[in-house]
Amino acid sequence: MTTLTLTILISSCFVGLALGVLFGAFPLKSTQMTRKQESYGSALSFLSLGLFLALVITKNDWASYAFIGFMLVGFGVAKIPAVHLWFVQRFKIFRPKNMRTLKKR
């Protein structure tokens, strides 16, 4: 494995984890999302798809698998109730439309 391939693999892991956490921090139901959250979610989706396709087209198979895997891990971590609550309380962009729907944990 060359240094460039290893660098791409590690970078795709970090980027996938970050994007997964961002996806997971948003509300799950679209009825609870604000317009701003919907637009950010669409932009994140477009960015994720573009990065994934770039990895596939450049035949970085392991990096593309790692990218998807780490996105799922990041999403799962962000959906842990304590972590999700921390994101919602700390950053305004992740708050649902109606804060009363957020369960106290």
UniProtKB/TrEMBL annotation:
Keywords: Membrane, Transmembrane, Transmembrane helix. The chain crosses the membrane at residues 6-28, 40-58, 64-88. This is Uncharacterized protein.
